[in-house]
Design goal:
Layout: E1 2-5, E2 10-13, E3 22-26, H1 37-55, E4 60-64, H2 71-79, H3 84-101, H4 117-129, E5 133-135, E6 141-143, H5 175-178, E7 187-192, E8 209-211, H6 215-225, E9 229-235, H7 239-254, E10 259-265, E11 268-270, H8 285-290, H9 295-303, E12 311-313, H10 315-335, H11 353-360, H12 365-378, H13 386-403, H14 418-432, H15 436-448, E13 451-455, E14 460-464
Parallel strand pairs: 3-4, 3-9, 9-10, 11-12
Antiparallel strand pairs: 1-2, 5-6, 6-7, 7-8, 13-14
Helix pairs in contact: 1-9, 1-13, 2-3, 4-6, 4-7, 6-7, 9-10, 11-12, 14-15
Adenosine monophosphate (AMP) binds next to helix 1 and strand 9.
Length: 467
């Protein structure tokens, strides 16, 4: 497979890992609120990449972290009067529910920052021993950027002014810290505790504090995937400073190349603008479901454009996605009645070679879908003999597997009876008002009629129970 490597800015053939698994690290969510559809664009395209590599025989192995300590998680857990653990566990669960609804594969490892404090401290100690980091008067530890000559290669920032890095993840500039640093561009590896952190600190050789914004990825990538990983990915906003800092920390601590290939996903815009709460254009999966589009429609809309290009999302994209999925479903049922989407090993493609080649060529999802619809438009399933149908079904199924589309999904077609809708609504209301006994009773009643409820972040769906 070929992919655009952001380190070097060229399309490159991905060389399989001679040691076995193709290791990938994806920067995961900060769990303090709903993930928005921009975040999901990045996660979904990473999911598609993983699926293609799996089909192509690379044996991918994925780690995606959970950031469960930072300024925002601490700030909002205190605001809500619950412990950091209780708070972040709630949002992690909601994130998992959204991922499941979007048919995303679970990563092989999903390490949490707070469960790897020792590993982070160890890496910081190594960086200090080797002279790449220093203790500041306020008992924070900083990375000394001047000690790493390669700094800036990924984002080409050497010509730009290196601005202060300590804009914290909540967007505030930490001015006080500037005076503790040798250089304003040095970034924090360990932050000494502040009154606003409350009880959220850990002991370290440098006193009470917590890890900086970047070290968790370096420490956890090393623990689960080794010193050198094959591919690292995130949204394009993470290139600088987050990924530059990860490279600096890992290469200086481990003395080895950190990442072979970097893949960055371009941003999602909504109605032509950057998503923001104040503009009212920030959407979550729950918002999309409320507007009666399925999670699969959202998945389709988010993966249908090339990952390297910005995607301007509008509700028209969902209308188009819904139509496209229906077309795929109709065709699939004609060539393979009542069969599930599966991936097959295909030694020689007969019908959909161009669709699969498009995926192998820098994950060109729009070209792949274009080839699939060209085939649908030009092929009448009735004219195919059984063997041809069988071959086409295997190929079609494999492409859909790569894209993560489930064409047996009946969720959109089934008419839910009024009474079931009413009971489901009552159950949701009972759950919202924490009347769990009543909510459970209603769930059981629905189940008697053969209906199950799946809850998502801010809504639910009703599904027919499988027999
Ligand atoms: P965060 O939780 O902010 O660290 O973001 C999680 C992931 O989503 C990261 O890989 C970000 O780069 C990515 N991301 C954030 N905003 C967008 C967006 N508008 N479009 C695509 N990806 C995004
Ligand atoms: Zn990261």
């Amino acid at each position: 497979m070929k992919l655009f490597n952001s380190l070097g800015n060229a399309k490159e053939e991905l060389q399989p890992n001679p040691h076995g698994k193709f290791t990938m690290y994806f920067c995961g969510p900060t769990v303090y609120n709903y993930a928005h559809i921009g975040n999901f664009r990045t996660y979904l395209l990473q999911d598609v990449l993983t699926r293609i590599l799996e089909v192509e025989g690379y044996s991918p192995c994925v780690a995606r972290n959970i950031t469960d300590v930072d300024d925002k998680t601490i700030r909002d857990s205190i605001k809500n009067n619950v412990s950091l653990k209780t708070f972040t566990e709630k949002w992690t669960k909601i994130f998992h529910e959204d991922c499941e609804a979007l048919n995303m594969k679970s990563p092989d490892f999903e390490p949490k920052a707070t469960e790897h404090i020792d590993e982070q401290i160890d890496m910081i100690k190594t960086l200090m021993e080797k002279g790449f980091a220093y203790l500041a008067p306020d008992h924070s530890v900083y990375f000394r950027i001047a000690s790493f000559k390669e700094y800036g290669r990924l984002s080409n920032i050497e010509n730009r002014e290196l601005k202060t890095q300590e804009i914290d993840s909540a967007g505030k500039k930490n001015l006080a810290d500037e005076y503790d640093r040798e250089n304003v561009s040095d970034f924090a590896l360990w932050k000494s505790t502040k009154p606003e952190d409350g009880e959220n600190f850990w002991m370290s050789p440098w006193g009470k504090g917590r890890p900086g914004w970047h070290i968790e990825c370096s420490a956890m990538a090393k623990k689960y995937l080794g010193c050198t990983i094959d591919l690292h990915s995130g949204g394009v906003d993470l290139k600088f400073p987050h990924h530059e800092n990860e490279i600096a920390q890992s290469e200086c601590a481990n003395g080895k190349k950190f990442v072979r290939y970097w893949m960055h996903v371009a941003h999602l815009l909504v109605d032509g603008a950057k998503m923001s709460k104040s503009l009212g254009n920030l959407y979550t999966l729950g918002d999309i479901l409320k507007k009666k589009y399925s999670a699969q429609c959202l998945r389709y809309a988010l993966i249908a454009a090339h990952y390297g290009q910005q995607l301007n999302f509008t509700f028209n994209n969902l209308v188009a996605a819904k139509n496209a999925i229906e077309k795929l479903q109709n065709f699939f049922h004609k060539i393979a009645p009542l069969q599930d989407i599966q991936k097959f090993e295909i030694s020689e493609w007969k019908f959909l070679e161009s669709a699969f080649s498009a995926l192998l060529d820098d994950m060109n999802t729009p070209a792949c879908l274009g080839s699939v619809f060209k085939l649908i438009n030009e092929t009448s399933p009735e004219s195919l003999n059984e063997e041809q149908k069988h071959t086409l079904h295997r190929e079609f199924s494999t492409i859909m597997y790569c894209l993560g589309l489930r064409l047996d999904d009946k969720e959109q077609d089934i008419e839910v009876p009024q009474e079931i809708k009413r009971l489901a609504k009552l159950r949701w209301q009972a759950k919202q008002s924490k009347n769990f006994v009543e909510a459970d009773r209603l769930r059981q009643e629905l189940s008697k009629y053969g209906w199950i409820i799946k809850d998502f972040s801010s809504t639910y769906i009703i599904e027919k129970e499988e027999l």
